[in-house]
Design goal:
The protein is α+β, with helices and mostly antiparallel strands and about 425 residues long. The chain is about 45% helix and about 10% strand. Strands 1-2-3-4-5 form a 5-stranded antiparallel sheet. Strands 6-7-8-9-10 form a 5-stranded antiparallel sheet. The protein is flat and about 80 Å long.
Length: about 425
């Protein structure tokens, strides 16, 4: 374990919970953000913006030097922005600070991996570290406020401040840590303390973790005489290993994609080692793409994970909405539910007759049959070849069916899980 080297952060006063960046230092950069975390900061505002025209004006303001010195304190970034009037407007962006428990999780995750500490010292933010706590803002997390009369969300002055703050984050990601509640000195001191504790633990155990596996000394293995027996094979680990932190570099593959693929490879290798079976070997390319997207609950919502949907859909020759619908089916019931979504079939009449009687007895609206489908204006049931009923819902009159709820042998129970409360479908006892 490499111990954390303490350094004196540049440009910090004795109290680093309040930092001011002069307008002269800001004038060198443009309004765009080259780093992935700076881009994520900008996307958090753009994804929640109500007026794209205000964003364009804010981008122009940011690039033309209208943002004066920026002051950053926990949960707040403030600056004066020159608008069309002689007197500049006081503008700020607010962001929730992390609680003590969230900070402990973030610092523990950073200290557990030497490459995370090295990345922070090099002014880089690994994707996996940012995921350990809500370090980066999501859509709607940035709350703008401005003294101008414009009530836009955000106004062009707040948008300009957001773009210029992204440039600060590009140069020094510790500004983001300060916005979340702790200054650079405090973060580095906490990491140094954890790093020292870890190094001391390794020294106490002779550089190896407790319970290290048996080994063969190199001099014995290379001796010309009889070789000692090799140690027994190691037992399979209890869980897959974690992928390394992939840096962002111009022209290199996307770090999020690399992290996803490395994590998937580790999980498959662990399953193969532990069971002798590859859990996804029998899937088609399309099924595997759906499985990958379904494994990420936030996929399709944040800008970074919308790219995952887009790329997976393009790689399989499908539209993103097709992938989103297939993901909903996969989460409903895995490969069997995906087959129900994509493959109509002709079941025997008996299950349909029993299902329609049960639906009528439960006070449901009439359902019209077609192949393995039973359809009403806003609800649908599909019978799978596994004998389970799968619920679907759509806005009335649109015929845009999406999987929902949990598959069940009872059609009424399957439909209750798929229906929204406004559909008037009984929800059970």
């Amino acid at each position: 374990m490499t111990p954390l080297r303490r350094r004196e952060p540049r440009g910090l006063s004795g109290d680093d919970t309040r930092r001011t960046f002069s307008s002269a230092a800001l004038s060198a950069g443009g309004p765009t953000a080259p780093t992935w975390w700076g881009t994520a900061w900008v996307e958090a505002m753009e994804d929640a913006a109500l007026d794209r025209a205000r964003l364009e004006r804010g981008r122009s303001y940011a690039g033309s030097g209208r943002v004066a010195s920026i002051t950053v304190t926990p949960g707040r970034v403030t600056a004066y922005v020159q608008g069309g009037r002689p007197r500049p407007y006081r503008t700020e962006l607010r962001l929730r600070t992390l609680g003590d428990g969230e900070w402990e999780a973030l610092l523990d995750a950073a200290a557990a991996r030497p490459e995370h500490i090295a990345a922070l010292l090099d002014k880089e933010v690994p994707h996996t570290l940012a995921s350990a706590a809500e370090l980066l803002p999501g859509p709607g997390d940035l709350v703008p406020d401005c003294s101008c009369p414009d009530d836009g969300m955000p106004c062009k002055h707040a948008a300009a401040l957001c773009y210029r703050t992204a440039a600060l984050l590009d140069e020094d990601p510790f500004v983001l840590f300060l916005l979340r509640g702790r200054g650079e000195r405090q973060v580095l001191a906490a990491l140094a303390h954890r790093s020292a504790d870890r190094a001391a633990g390794e020294r106490r155990t002779g550089g190896a973790a407790p319970g290290a596996p048996p080994s063969v000394a190199a001099r014995d293995a290379l001796h010309a005489g009889a070789r000692p027996p090799l140690p027994p094979p190691l037992p399979a680990p209890s869980r897959p290993g974690r992928p390394p932190a992939y840096p962002h570099a111009s022209g290199a593959p996307d770090p999020l994609s690399l992290d996803l693929l490395a994590g998937e490879a580790a999980a498959r290798a662990h399953a193969l080692l532990a069971t002798g079976r590859d859990p996804v070997a029998g899937l088609t390319t399309w099924q595997d793409a759906v499985r990958l997207a379904a494994a990420h609950p936030g996929a399709g919502l944040a800008a970074s994970t919308r790219a995952l949907y887009r790329d997976l859909a393009a790689a399989t020759g499908r539209a993103p909405v097709e992938l989103a619908r297939a993901v909903a089916a996969w989460r409903q019931g895995g490969p069997a539910a995906l087959r129900v979504l994509e493959e109509p079939w002709d079941p025997p009449a008996g299950p349909f007759d029993r299902a329609r009687s049960a639906l009528t007895a439960a006070g449901m609206p009439p359902f019209r049959p077609w192949r393995n489908h039973l359809t009403s204006p806003a609800l649908q049931l599909r019978l799978g070849q596994d004998g389970l009923w799968y619920g679907y819902e759509s806005e009335t009159g649109r015929e845009d069916w999406w999987p929902g709820g949990t598959p069940d042998e009872d059609p009424v129970a399957a439909l209750r899980g798929a229906a929204r409360p406004a559909d008037g479908v009984p929800r059970g006892e």
